[in-house]
Amino acid sequence: MKKVLVVDDSLSVARQLEKIISESSDFTCVGHAKNGAEAIKMNHTENPDIICMDMNMPGMDGLTALRTLSVMDKEVKVVMVTSLGGVGDKFTEALRLGAKNVISKPFDAETVLRILREL
Question: In which domain, by residue range, is 90 found?
């Protein structure tokens, strides 16, 4: 069973994603970080297989955290979460920085699980 860390400043969004992950027999949710700085710390303490991280958060945003995580952990697998519909410069930058994929809000459970299983 793969361990997933959810990173989102919105508790309701994080809970939706955690519910999808937890109801799958393939994954377990190992924690919830509220911003990029917490995600970096929890990547070290929880050692997740996959990090699902929001792009836009107060404090340290997802792209800044992705840059740091990619340098610190060459094996890190980050899937960015966005309400931007996966368009524009941020989407392209996330993939360039090492994100494995992008999940759009609102979530479609089958799509989320398919993306996570591909990693």
Answer: 2-117
